[in-house]
Amino acid sequence: MRQHQVIIVCGETGSGKTTQLPKIALALGRGKCNAPAGQKGQLIGHTQPRRIAASSVAKRIAEELKTTLGDVVGFKVRFQDRLSRDASVKLMTDGILLAETQTDPLLKNYDTIIIDEAHERSLNIDFLLGYIRQILPRRPDLKVVVTSATIDADRFAKHFASARPAPGRPKAGGAPSGGSVPHAVGERGGELVPAPIIMVSGRTFPVEQRYRPFEESRDYGLNEAIADGVDELWQGNAAGDILVFLPGEREIREAADHLRKHLSHQPVMRNAEVLPLFARLSQAEQDRIFDGHTGRRIVLATNVAETSLTVPGVRYVIDAGTARVKRYSFRSKVEQLLVEPVSQAAANQRAGRCGRVANGICIRLYDEASFNSRPRFTDPEILRSSLAGVILRMKSLHLGDVTQFPFIEAPSGRAIADGYQLLSELGAVDDANELTPMGTELSRLPLDPRVGRMIIEARDRKALDEVLVIASALSVQDVRDRPMEAQQQADQAHAKFDDEKSEFSGYLKLWKWINEARGGAPSLPSARAQKAMAVHKAPSQAYLPVTQRMVAAAQPTPAAAVASAAAPAPTHKLSNRQYEQLLRQNFISIRRLREWRDIHTQLLTVVTEHKWQINTQPASYEQLHLSMLAGLLGNVGAKSDEEDWYLGARGIKFYKHPGAHLSKKPGRWIIASELVETTRLFGRGIAAIEPQWLEQMGGHLLKKQLLDPHWEKKSAEVVALERATLYGIVVYNNRRVNFGKVDPHAAREVFIREALVGGNWETKLPFLAANQKMIAKVEELEHKSRRQDVLVDDELIYAFYDQQLPPDVCSGHSFEAWYRDESKKQPELLKLTRDELMRHEAAGITTNAFPKTVRLGGVDCAASYLHEPGDVRDGITVTIPLFVLNQVSDERCEWLVPGMLKDKIQALLKSLPQRPRSRFVPLPESAKRLAELLGTPERFGTGSLTDVLLKQVRDETSLDVKRADFKLDMLSPHLFMNFRVVDEHGRQLGHGRNLGALKAEWGAKARGAFQALAGLKLGGAAAESDKYESKVPQALDGKAQAAIKTGVKGGAQPAQPAKPASTTPSAPSTPAGQRYTTWTFGELPELMEIKKAGQTLIGFPALIDGGDAVTIEVFDEPEVAAAKHRAGLRRLFALQIKDALKYLEKNIPDLQKMAVAYMQVGRNADGTGGGTQEELRAQIIDVALDRAFLLDPLPTDEFAFKRRMEEGRGRLTLIANEVARLASTILLEYAVAVRKIKDTKNAPEATQDAQQQLARLMPKNFIAVAPWTQLAHYARYLKAITLRLDKYRADPARDATKLAELRPQEQRYWRLVAERKGAVDARMQELRWLLEELRVSFFAQELRTPQPVSVKRLDKLWAQIQS
Fold first, then answer.
1. If you ran DSSP here, which 8-state letter would residue 757 be given?
2. Are 172 and 208 in contact (CB under 8 A)?
3. Rounded distance, CA 629 to CA 607, Å?
4. Are 174 and 399 contacting, i.e. CB atoms less than 8 angstroms apart?
5. What was the pLDDT predicted at 153?
6. Which of these, 19, 488, 634, 917, is most buried using a 10 Å CB contact count?
């Protein structure tokens, strides 16, 4: 030590290094006691990594020197100072020495510094070693001893290598004789010489190493292995205590429970004590370990007992081989407490804890190969920690760049960058990594930079008093004890300190209770009383000063009444002993409470030195937590919507710590004082925050994105949606931001394109409306001509505006201000002309070719045009008022408008087969010629365009072209008229190109609207269009459905029905809805002309059957009117001959006999639904009435009605008897056919076909619906069915052949009926009954047919139908 400034001392554990080195230094004349008279002596500094080690070593050295602790040898640790003014040896933690560098940069108070247990390589040790190396050249008198049992001596020796001066060139003012100047390599070219290494020995007792590896299984684990080790060590009643090393507190608790159960079954060892030893234990529990004892003892410890501590009586060690190591994750930015295998050095330190009082045994619960594969030394803490505090301290001490600092092992660039990132987060460094004023203030606070940032923010937010309490609490272990044997009682005692949303507020509650618990002021009520007060909405007393709390307690509120039983009244001040007893009863650690108060006092001293004002008014929740948030921006969490975890910074997921002191769930957004990873990542020190606070405190850290810049018409500005994230957490999304302030150039472009070119802006400026109107006119020409090259494109219009607008105009407000000034100089400013908008003239686009209205059903319907292939509105769209829908002719709609006729004719010609199509090549010229020929006013719109063109094609080509040769499905959709049906208010009801479908859907309501307009249904001027729905017309019969074909949509307001319609010839002069029993309403015309708003509608009046009377209604379809009128006229005749009808009903011949057979007609498979006698009677009488009175022409006035009455009255009975006889014959043959079908076996196809024929012939109303001429043949048709089945057995092949010929004929007919929705014309009726005759000729020729019939004849008739 005399010859070298730095020496490295290493040797076995238990060799006396720790206690002998300070005594050697004293013997060499170091220390205050050896200072010359009149000179101020210096101390021998001796550092230990832990407080308990520093105090225990000081006591041992004092005992060996036989001096009082503090006189020659003393110690100073945080919150304890047992050092007299004249002491020579000072034991302390390395953190204390590091803190002294701020007030004593060259450490002039010391002449010798001993760094013990340097192998631990804590952050403080590494920083000290690098700092000492820097100051050694300026302190040549300072001696440094670095020592440990398991030190990496070579690494430390190289770190303190010194330069020997070159021979013959002694260095002036050099080191003492034989010495060297560490790290003084340079201009003189001296050789680097490592610091000397001294190996010491002298261990009294050897330690035997035993390896006992085990395999983890379901039935055997770590606890069982420890129990076996205990049995092995204590076998044969061996004496001595056992020290067991485990990784953490949870493992200690589990092992303790297992060992107690294990030992309870062994008589000799059942009284052995099992004690825990870890850092969070109370002082009393730690002292118990070092007290003397007589029995056996097992101490379960973490790595806190690994170094410096000598546990009395320990002869044996059981090493689990693992420890919880704190590692900082540079990815997730959190501290991780991971269970890892210990290094060889740490394992040797553990083994060295025994063999100090006798021969020792160390059982390692792993094999020797595992030991040899482990790293020699533990990773330095600087390589696994955040460097923010180190960097900040170095900056404040002006030690230069951290990358140049002489660490024993320099941290990685990633670690340094991470430290700078945290300082940047706190606002401590700028972009150049230089200290900011905030960083300078932080460096003056002896705290973690995060905590310091909280205190500075609290100063500005008037929350300093509260944050000092919380900051000091976060700097120590929680003062709330949870002894293993009384955890539930401790939790109950601590519940009164819990807050609903914040553990920080819980610290304030705890602090206030501690300060007031001595008496003299009311303390906090219990947790139960607090809940009762919360129910009554009482304010929390945790934030109130004592004086205010006393006032609140005195006020007679319901909440106070609830809590009065639980809240103690002011009491006398307790003595120290009573106070400590109260703290123990509430499971408050007295030692940690003293530390808390000492730190708070120190922080208060720092605040006072800086002359920061302490707030006198309680801080609000927002003030308090904004201050805390300033230092914890990296510990923000947003709760997952589905699971119980929080999304933290940089994509990490963490959970609320299970031991969190909260009475309720904290909420969606939280901050945590620290994030620690054990079994999973937990957040400790949880508090709820508001998301808007993040923007307020972390605005410099927010990453903002502007998405979807768009024009908003309402605000008249370009708006973007802003998204802000804090370390990947979305703070807010879709916030509207004025894009013009962010990027005026891009906002200007969007403004011009959307507002001016697109016209998406509501403004009173005249130019824009004029331009849009002009553009609309040009676009209309484009749609009509179906060309997209008439209007100039948007880019040219954009260029027009871009050229004239100044660069700073990017919103509606700035534009209007500019336009008002400029328009005074140029009145026509920004107005577009027709020539500027059109590329060329659109020839042939006239009003005649493309009219604005199309006359349909006697009404001028508005027409609009669109050229947008693929759009449902492509082509021409006609708006049809609902009341005229049923009168729209699909034949007229085929013609479209004159301007589109050529294109449709060309498309129809193109769809023809090749032979006729070739006669019209070239098609465009032929289509133009035919359009001129057919488009004349006298021919346009007359008949069906397809039929007219078919005739023209036949005439010109002399070819037998069929109507079906025009493939309408090949035509483009725009060549079919598009219909838009609207009600009287202009609301769209339906749209499409299928007119028939629209009529089917809206025909009934259209009929009601038409009748309301006619004034005959709802009564004159009182008829309102919104009431037509109250009358739903009866279902359409077959003839009415014949008028329904195709349909679609359109576009104009219909005329409002108001006055009763005028008619020509005169309508019946009777109120609408009046009932008649005789013909007293004058002449009933076949049609009526209804004048409305200059339009003429055609109506068809009809008598409506009302049961006991008839009414008059007007219909918009002649087929429906005719069907209704026949039924109404039949009822009116019946009302005139009531007596005759009653007689006739009772005297129909063989009615009951016929009714029995009629019961089978229309019956379902389950036997229900057959015909009844009443239905049969009604059909016979209706047919008789039709035959007697309703022969064409029908009467139209009273005279013709009465004359027809007289003519038919006399023959009614004869006609009825004739109908009854015919019905009887048909029903008789029907019964025979049904029975025959049932009895025929082994002929499935024939019987099935017969059943289908029978079902078509014989519905329940067959008498009424079948034409009279065909009804006479029904018996023959039915008899043919019977004969067919009789012949089937003799020649089934012939039946199958004929059926194969018949089926295609019938199938195509019924398919056509379905396509025409039941509308059957005369030719189809003829084909229908020829099919029945064909069946007779095929299967029952002996019955003969009235006329020749064959498949060939049916084909010829089919061709006529299709032509």
1. I
2. no
3. 20
4. no
5. 84
6. 634
d(CA 1116, CA 887) in angstroms, rounded, equals 6
User: What angle (nearest 5°) sits at the alpha carbon of residue 1143, between those of residues 1137 and 1144?
Assistant: 85
Q: What pTM did the predictor assign? A: 0.49
The half-sphere exposure of 752 on its side-chain side, counting CA atoms within 13 A, is 22
Strand partners, 1095: 1092
For residue 1220, the 8-state DSSP code is: H
Instruction: Report whether 420 contacts 391 (CB < 8 A).
Output: yes
Angle (nearest 5°) at CA 584 between 579 and 587: 130
| Edge-to-edge strands, sheet with 1110-1115 | 1088-1092, 1095-1105, 1110-1115
Query: Cα separation of 417 and 390, whole Å?
Result: 12
87 neighbors 53 (Cβ within 8 angstroms)? no
Burial call 971-981: b when 16+ CB within 10 Å, e when fewer:
beebbbbbbbb
Query: CA nearest 204: which of 57, 351, 15, 20?
Result: 15
Identify the sign of the CA torsion 85, 91, 93, 95.
Answer: positive
Q: Give CA angle at 240 (234, 245), nearest 5°.
A: 85
* 1039 C-beta neighbours (distance < 10 Å), count: 17
For 207-357, where are the E strands, in sequence order?
207-211, 241-245, 273-277, 297-301, 314-319, 322-329, 334-341
- Whole-number CA gyration radius for the chain: 55
- In whole angstroms, what is the distance from residue 1120 CA to residue 1041 CA? 8
525 near 563, Cβ under 8 Å?
yes
Between 460-474, 836-850, 1048-1062, the lowest mean confidence (pLDDT) is in 1048-1062
User: What sections of 121-214 are H helices per DSSP?
Assistant: 123-135, 153-159
Pairing of strands 360-364, 207-211: parallel
Pairing of strands 181-182, 162-164: antiparallel
Distance of CA 362 to the CA centre of its chain: 58
Looking at every residue in the chain, the average pLDDT score rounds to 82
- Gap between the Cα atoms of 964 and 947, Å rounded: 11
Query: Of how many residues is the chain composed?
Result: 1363
pLDDT tens-digit series, residues 1319-1329? 777 888 888 89
Q: Provide the b/e sequence for 298-310 (b: ≥16 CB within 10 Å).
A: bbbbbbbbbbbbb
Lowest-pLDDT range of 249-263, 832-846, 1121-1135: 832-846
Task: Tell me which DSSP letter residue 475 carries.
Answer: T
Tokens of 431: 């972009």
DSSP tag of 755: I
Q: Where are the beta strands (DSSP E) in 727-792?
A: 729-738
Cα 430 to Cα 436: distance, rounded to the nearest angstrom: 6
Residue 244 near residue 298, CB atoms below 8 Å = yes
- Contacts of residue 836, defined as CB under 8 A and 6 or more positions apart, other chains included, come to 792, 800
1267 prior amide bond cis, ω within 30: no
CB 324 within 8 A of CB 248: yes
What does DSSP say about strands 1110-1115 and 875-881: parallel, antiparallel, or unpaired? Answer: unpaired
Asked if residues 1003 and 885 have their Cβ atoms less than 8 Å apart, the reply is: yes
**Phi/psi of residue 604, each to 5°?**
-65, -35
Instruction: Give DSSP secondary structure letters for 25-74.
Output: HHHTT-SGGGSPTTS---EEEEEESSHHHHHHHHHHHHHHHT--TTTSEE
Q: Report the SS3 class of residue 1186.
A: helix
Confidence of residue 887 (pLDDT cuts 50, 70, 90): confident
Say which range, 158-172, 551-565, 1034-1048, 1313-1327, has the weakest mean pLDDT. 1034-1048
Tokens of 214: 């085990």
User: What are the tokens at 1155?
Assistant: 């009714």
Report the side by side order of strands in the sheet with 162-164. 181-182, 162-164, 191-193
Give the integer Cα–Cα distance in Å for 1337 and 1335: 5
As a whole number of angstroms, the distance between CA 302 and CA 277 comes to 7
